[in-house]
Amino acid sequence: MELNSVFDVARHAMSAQMVRLNTISSNIANATSVASTREAAYQPMRPMFETFYDTQAGLSTTRAAEIVTLERDPVRQYRPDHPMADGDGYVFTAAVNMEEEMVEMLEAGRQYQNILETVSTMRTLLARTVKMGQG
Amino acid sequence: MEAMFRQQIGHFADALSLHQRRGELLASNIANAATPGFKARDLDFQAVLAARAGQGAMMTSDPRHFAHSGAAADGAAQFRIPVTPSLDGNTVDLPVEQMEFAENALRYQMSLNFLNRRISSAMGAMREE
Most buried pick, A3, A117, B80, B115, via CB within 10 A? Predict the structure, then answer.
């Protein structure tokens, strides 16, 4: 992996933000899923971002190094009528904080927009440079 | 005449390539706006341009001469001093980077316009009426 231009920088940064949006949508989709045991309950996920440097080009971008599951205790709910309830009548729902996910989603979306705006500006300038001397 | 023309064109060409380099660096900063521990970098545009025009660093004519250049005139990016420090060690200030990027894009366009004018005036001089 090497970074030769602003397009490479944007490609990696945008895919990292896309990974972030995907994990957020997984979390939101599983916010209300239930399980019979504490271990089987859905654990919310977060990507860990790290900087990737191309020292030769002097450029850097961000990438999702790994996706970690947040160690949060699933919520234990008393729902004896639920088909997945355990012997004592409890189910375990995923510990997804909806407000937190919404804030994360907005931030990821804004970051994506920022880098897209940057690369489209650079693209326009480069396209004009290609036509240099013809106008 | 030719040398003068080349010199004038060359100056704007230098500025253009530096603006592009700076745009890429600022894009790197914006891409890393949310990465913990990232340190934003930027070019000292004036110093690098002066060095490219032969005004910054001293010329050496012998291998035993010391190469002396002005502050970071060799084109190396320097770290930005953050306006507001953040807990995660990230020094990208998004509004600052965005403003710098916007200004850089405009200056790129300016250099490009100057180049275009020079080329078209030279073409006009060459063309027979």
Answer: A3
